[in-house]
Write a structure and sequence with these properties.
By secondary structure, the protein is an alpha/beta fold. It has a single domain, classed as TIM Barrel, CATH 3.20.20. About 45% of the residues lie in helices and about 15% in strands. It is built from ten helices and eight strands. Helix 4 links the parallel strand 4 and strand 5. About 50% of the residues are buried. The structure holds SN-glycerol-1-phosphate (1GP). The site of SN-glycerol-1-phosphate has 14 residues, from strand 8 and helix 9.
Amino acid sequence: MVHEDTSVRDFICDRSQGTRHGIVIDPAEQSPDIAAKRAIAAVSAGSKMILVGGSSDTDSNNVHDTIVAIKEGLELVTWASSQDSVMDENNWKIPIILFPQGAASLSPAADAITFMMLMNSTDPRFLIQEQIKGAPYIRNAGINPISMGYVICSPGGRAGQVGKAKLLLPNEIEKSAAYALTAQMYGFDMLYLEAGSGADKPVNPDLIRSARDVTEITLIVGGGIRDGATAKIAAMAGADWIITGNLVEEFEDASELESVLSEFIKEMTN
Ligand code: 1GP
């Protein structure tokens, strides 16, 4: 039986909370220790989801070690705040979610997995084959699947190349709406519009708006978002989640990262 705990999915898909911020940690880009420090800084700043994954150089070992380190780090802070009457321990209970490049980079320690179809891939591997490979493992490990349509928009970056995506162009407004409708008709929990990590331009807000206008699906937007003002534009267009990756990797110092992300989230939500 597929794991029935729907609490993580409900938390992620709850659209009543306004636009929230999440981070993506690429296990190939830092040690598990540093990843944990970054995750703690982000959660302390107000981030509400931690995705773990990357487009290349991830395998189940570095994915697993990274997830375990983040989990242990957050558990420690949760415990510390439970001993402190001023701090709310619930603020630290943030899901750690696998954001996999394929069936070879999974970990049973994750709270959930974005079980995704790369909807505009030209390769059946990313449409359905990796999913078939991974599904039995996901069931046996008891990881909660959160179904997701993943659409890579130009410029697309490494994710677009690796996933052999026929990129969604900034002017393909109706096509974006059609992808959103298709994702909803498949019963997917969420739709992720991705410009690619490190993109020089984020997803065109008109693509976000057209997807938002035709569906109630939870919308995630990421790629090339480096400041709160850009995040706010995506939020106003209808994004439920803004994901940043590179920004998090830029700071060695955790307290500096925390203050940059606090400012980012404040600007995004104001
Ligand atoms: C990757 O969209 C995310 O899936 C993050 O992109 O690294 O550009 O923030 P950035």
